[in-house]
Amino acid sequence: GFEVGGPRHREIELFVYSPRDLYRPGENVVISALKRNADGQPIDGPVNIKILNPDGAEQASVRKQSQAGSYLLGAMRVQYQTGGYFQFEYDLPENSPLGDWSAIVSSPENEAAATTFKFKVEEFIPERLRLSFNEGRTELLGFGPSEDLKIMVKGEYLYGAPAVGNKLDTT
Question: Which of 11, 38, 44, 114 has the most CB atoms around it within 10 Å of its CB?
Fold first, then answer.
């Protein structure tokens, strides 16, 4: 069958997100949480967070912080603003195990209604491009105030593939 009932009703909802879901060992993981009531209105009050490695072992946790402000609690930097917004930062150790990690965020008022945000820790190399301008040409380019400047640009990824279809923004 198909699920047609929608999400279960909860008096307190936690919306957990991050700007990324892929990190490398040694990088800073940023997790944000919004605490809302059943009508979607922001509510103040503490939340708990646990960071679990791929083996399910707890790497860091913060419990029941409720004072607005920015502070360091154990291995996590915490920013709590009134209006139910929380931001947690955790520096992954350089020797972090690779795989699927989890951030479990819950409200002390209802620990069973926890929200899990999954992220990966992997070794990866970001895409890098090499750009060549007017390759093979030695003449100086000139243009007047009412003329368009035309420059030949060649792009290729550093692993050798051409960067076909990419857009170059000159603003």
Answer: 114
Report the 10 Å Cβ neighbour count for 78: 19
Cβ atoms of residues 30 and 18 within 8 Å: yes
**In terms of Cα–Cα distance, which of 14, 105, 92 is closest to 53?**
92
CB 43 within 8 A of CB 59: no
Does this model's pTM top 0.90? My answer is no
Determine the pLDDT at residue 1: 67
Q: Which tokens is 47 given? A: 């939340």
Helices marked H in 35-120 = none
**Hey, how many other C-beta atoms are within 10 angstroms of the C-beta on 121?**
20
User: What percent of the chain shows pLDDT beyond 70?
Assistant: 94
Q: State how far the Cα of 65 lies from the Cα of 78, in Å rounded to an integer.
A: 9
Q: Tens of pLDDT along 54-107? A: 999 999 988 766 667 787 777 888 888 878 899 999 999 999 999 999 999 998
Task: Kindly compute the dihedral angle of the four CA atoms of residues 33, 36, 42, 46, in this order, to the nearest 10 degrees.
Answer: -60
Measured between alpha carbons, how far is 86 from 93 in angstroms, rounded to an integer?
23
Largest CA distance in the chain: 72
d(CA 104, CA 51): 7
